[in-house]
Amino acid sequence: MNRRILHVITRLPVGGAERLLADVVRFLDRSRFDSIVCCIEDGGAIADEIAAAGIRVIVLGLMQHGGFDCRVVPPVVEM
Fold this sequence. Notes:
With 79 residues, this protein is an alpha/beta fold. The protein is 33% helix and 29% strand. The chain is globular and about 40 Å long.
């Protein structure tokens, strides 16, 4: 059984941290790890790239107005 890894990030526009996350999930050994990427706010170009590589991307669409939103916790726990 593969280990599941949940990668959580606020959003995935083109940028340094976002590029690093894309590289990490693409190059992890898929015979050992199953990655899921969770975007709390929204996706973006990097989210599309990750999804095209066959990695599950979930966009919650929360925290759009800044600050922490408690509604983030239940969907993340369920993943």
